[in-house]
Design goal:
The complex is a heterodimer of chains A (279) and B (271). Chain A is mainly α. Helices cover 79% and strands 0% of the residues of chain A. Chain B has one domain. Helix content of chain B is 78%, strand content 0%. Chain B is built from eleven helices and no strands.
Chain lengths: 279, 271
């Protein structure tokens, strides 16, 4: 019960940090602008390239819009540990969390949940705006089907991605504990690599072998596949297949993340990194 | 008011030197600055390749090169005074006789020199991965590049003076404006002229962003061997933009500095 309370308190704090720096509507707008523009950039690149050789298809446009919109959530997770730990060390929050018994793991889980909560509306906005703007710009509606079933399916995929997202939080948190400079470096690389290796914009088979295999072990690839199965292909078999890999990959990643974070935290305590500030 | 050119030059040199020294003295900075432009441009180049158009992968790589500079303008120019305010350095600037415009110009020159390694690495890695075919007209490329950087960094000076009035909103604002400008400026695809997906009205709006004109001229001169005579209008617009933005930036800085002094918001620290 105490752990749940810690997770909820941390989630609430994360929500306040992300959304309450101004009024929530403006904050949501500001948060949604960049991912939506990024989705439209990818869609425009596809339109420019494919229309040049007459291979434009609404289905492929939908593939890019869905993938790029879902990627905005994945990218948001990569910055959670830096905001929670590095920034927390700077503001003296993290050392205080650390000295309360067994609180840092629920603390990071809560911050990941907050990121989940504030990035879901961003996905909805970026999907909706990108759909209508690309319809207006390219003259062809992306083949996205919104129904009660597809919404239910995409909701399920997002919920099932939480273990993988939390795992990413713990893995990057293990790094954040130790850094006192260049704290945004690794999250930037991880976020950029996930754009390439999670099938956010293109199928993994475009990548040269064996790089294409990396996508198969990244749980977020299955989030993309499940989302496309729900919104584009309306295929339960594809969806369920991706969901089982998403769940399995998420649990394995979560285990790895917890072990890495626990080890990093112990090592940081011994070496005095817990309260070393970033200036 | 008489300008002490010696003081102005020394201030500019010192600020530029700090920025250059911090990058070249700590090569990890190059790796840090490389992440976003390199991986974004690789992703866009792969997207081009996945549509069967490998010949346009160069557009994506060129976008990555300019993203390195644009990122530097946003995060190391626009936000810099805000961070300096937080850490107390801005107070020192204010009480010293150093001209603020010289600090900004030094920051720009230092920023450009510090971003060159990241931009060069994006080019090299992109070239190696995608075997791009370019047909550059070097004089036109050189002039476009210089004028684009001049106008971009002049925009950075203007933003930096505007951000002086902001607190932590500055970071959110930076996060918010980066991608829409990448989209409108056509960092990875033509956003004005032939091949643009945007209606004419949006293209007009996009043309007010220096990066849009710069990218358009760079694409013409790097990939279609457009010489100076083919892009003279772009060069003229970029030069005018640089001068106008520099002037507005200087005026805005003076006004906001004065207002900040009166209201006592210039030295408010967040830490």
């Amino acid at each position: 019960m105490r752990v749940i309370r810690s997770i909820l308190a941390s989630a609430w704090m994360g929500w306040q940090r992300e959304m309450k720096w101004t009024n929530p509507a403006l904050s949501l707008f500001v948060k949604a602008v960049a991912p939506t523009a990024a989705v439209l950039s990818a869609a425009a690149v596809y339109w420019f390239g494919s229309s040049f050789i007459g291979l434009f298809t609404p289905e492929r446009l939908a593939y890019i819009i869905v993938g790029a919109s879902m990627y905005s959530q994945v990218a948001a997770y990569t910055y959670v540990p830096t905001a929670a730990i590095t920034e927390g060390k700077w503001s003296n929050l993290y050392p205080q969390v650390y000295i309360t018994p067994t609180s840092s793991i629920p603390y990071l889980a809560g911050r990941c949940l907050a990121s989940f909560a504030d990035s879901v509306p961003v996905i909805v906005i970026s999907l909706a705006v990108s759909y209508y703007v690309s319809y207006a710009l390219f003259g062809s509606p992306p083949s996205i089907t919104i129904s009660l079933t597809s919404v239910f399916m995409i909701g399920g995929a997002l919920v099932l991605s939480i273990p993988a997202a939390t795992a990413l939080g713990y893995l990057l948190g293990s790094y954040s504990i130790f850094v006192s400079r260049f704290e945004w470096a690794l999250p930037s690389y991880v976020s950029g690599l996930l754009m390439i290796f999670s099938e956010a914009l293109f199928p993994a088979n475009i990548l040269p072998y064996p790089l294409s295999l990396i996508a198969e072990i990244v749980p977020f690839t299955y989030l993309m596949r499940a989302s496309r199965a729900a919104l584009i292909y309306n295929s339960w078999s594809m969806y369920l297949n991706s969901m089982q890999y998403l769940a399995l990959g998420g649990m394995v990643f979560l285990l790895m993340g917890l072990v890495a974070f626990r080890k990093a935290e112990n090592s940081a305590r011994v070496k005095g990194y817990i309260d070393k500030k970033v200036m | 008011m008489q300008v002490d050119f010696n003081l102005w030059y020394r201030t500019m040199y010192s600020r530029a030197w700090v920025r250059v020294r911090s990058t070249y003295g700590e090569p990890v900075w190059v790796a840090v600055n490389l992440a976003v432009p390199l991986l974004s441009s690789l992703a866009m180049a792969l997207l081009y390749r996945s549509t069967g158009l490998s010949r346009f992968t160069g557009f994506a790589i060129l976008g990555g090169v300019m993203l390195a500079f644009w990122g530097n303008v946003l995060w190391s120019m626009a936000s810099q005074f805000n961070w300096d305010k937080e850490t107390g350095i801005f107070e020192i600037y204010l009480i010293s006789p150093a001209p603020i415009t010289a600090i900004l110009v030094g920051m720009s020159l230092g920023g450009i020199l510090a971003t060159v390694p990241s931009a060069a690495l994006v080019t090299l890695i992109g070239w190696e991965f995608f075997s791009m075919s370019a047909n550059p007209s070097w004089m036109a490329v050189f002039l476009t590049f210089i004028l684009t950087l001049a106008s971009l960094y002049a925009l950075g000076m203007l933003l930096s003076s505007l951000y002086l009035t902001y607190g932590r909103e500055a970071e959110s604002l930076n996060n918010a404006i980066g991608e829409p400008i990448n989209l409108l400026a056509g960092l990875y695809f033509p956003s004005i002229g032939t091949g643009s997906p945007f209606p004419f009205a949006v293209q007009i709006i996009a043309s007010f962003i220096p990066l849009t004109i710069g990218m358009d001229a760079l694409r013409k001169s790097v990939f279609y061997s457009g010489g100076v005579e083919a892009i003279w209008l772009d060069l003229l617009v970029l030069a005018v933009m640089a001068v106008v933005l520099l002037f507005i930036g200087d005026r805005a800085l003076k006004i906001l500095e004065e207002r900040g002094r009166r209201e006592g918001t210039l030295v408010v620290r967040l830490r």
